[in-house]
Amino acid sequence: EDQVTQSPEALRLQEGESSSLNCSYTVSGLRGLFWYRQDPGKGPEFLFTLYSAGEEKEKERLKATLTKKESFLHITAPKPEDSATYLCAVAGGGADGLTFGKGTHLIIQP
Amino acid sequence: DTGVSQDPRHKITKRGQNVTFRCDPISEHNRLYWYRQTLGQGPEFLTYFQNEAQLEKSRLLSDRFSAERPKGSFSTLEIQRTEQGDSAMYLCASTPQGDSGNTIYFGEGSWLTVV
User: Using CA atoms, how far apart are residues B56 and A3, in angstroms rounded to an integer?
Assistant: First the structure.
């Protein structure tokens, strides 16, 4: 059974204070690892897909990296508008649905 | 830009009533998914369609739940005899045909409150 564990559950940062969110996973036959952003009361918004260890992708202040056991979402010089819940999910193991973690609730204080 | 559309966005119903949610996927996306999300949890997979065929169901999908996708276009998710434990956000998502590594795009969700 595919499993995804995200840490920390919540993170409070000052504006401009860089940090990283962790996503550890176990899956048989990783077909893709996904990062989503979710604002309160809304559906997940796609950020990145990573397919193989060593791969990195960037978008504005966010960079996602992937190893064989975990992924990191690095946030550089965050702004208050980056406040959201960040979800990690994997596709693999023969199941066609994504398996999600519980998310990291990120708060950026001005 | 037309993303995944869900209706209604919010529904309050009394326990025991039936409710139906509709999802219109992104145009030309062959695969359509339903997920459920409760507060503080990540989305949980319920079922998915490849065109009009329902190919996989989660054990979370009890016999009170039924999903359809007639003609491979929009989809409906019906919950019969609702229970308070059904209160959640129901998310629809779609992706182009391909292996499961394709990016899945979500709608804004339909909130269900059972009172």
Answer: 19
Instruction: Point out the residue among B41, B56, B101 whose CB comes nearest to the CB of A31.
Output: B101
Contact B103 A34 (CB under 8 A): yes
Query: A5, A28, A87, A98: which to substitute to probe chain B, counting the most B Cβ within 10 Å?
Result: A98
DSSP A38-81: E-TTS--EEEEEE-STT-EEEETTEEEEE-SSEEEEEE-S--GG
Q: Considering chain B, what percentage of its residues have pLDDT values greater than 70?
A: 95
Q: What is the pLDDT of residue A69?
A: 94
- Using a CB-CB cut-off of 8 Å, the residues of chain A touching B6 are 43
CA B54 from chain centre, in angstroms, equals: 12
Tokens at residue B32, please?
A: 């359509």
Q: Give the nearest chain A residue to B36 (CA atoms).
A: A43
Phi, psi (deg, nearest 5) at residue A103: 95, 160
pLDDT at residue B1 greater than cutoff 60: no
Q: Cα–chain-centroid distance for residue A75?
A: 11
Nearest CA in chain B to A30: B101
For the record, the structure tokens of B70 come out as 């007639």
Q: Which of B76, B91, B85 is nearest to B114 (CA)?
A: B85
Report the distance separating Cα A84 and Cα A14, nearest Å: 14
For residue A92 the two structure tokens come to 């693999």
